[in-house]
Amino acid sequence: MVLEETAIADILKEIGLVGLWIQAVGLIIILWIIFQIIILVNNRIRRKQLYEIENRLKKIESKINQLVKKKT
User: Cα angle vertex 39, ends 46, 37, to 5°?
Assistant: First the structure.
């Protein structure tokens, strides 16, 4: 009877350890997803800024072209 109780206790301890590992892996996955979302938002902001700079450069280029045409 004592052997059965210790065997059951050992099995429950092992199941508990597996549960802790699963929680740890889940926490790591959740943190990874959060970091990926942050990186995605930062990249979107940077891309938007690059598009704005590109548009400004196009406007400047067109104004320079107009000035050059007027002088010629």
Answer: 125
Block residue for tokens 């104004």: 63
Provide the residue type at 64 as one letter.
I
Q: What is the pLDDT of residues 16-27, one digit of tens each?
A: 888 889 999 999
**Helix, strand and coil percent figures for the chain, each rounded to 5:** 95, 0, 5
Question: What is the pTM (predicted TM-score) of this model?
Answer: 0.65
SS3 call for 56: helix
For tokens 């065997």, name the residue: 7
Dist. CA 61–CA 72, nearest whole Å: 17
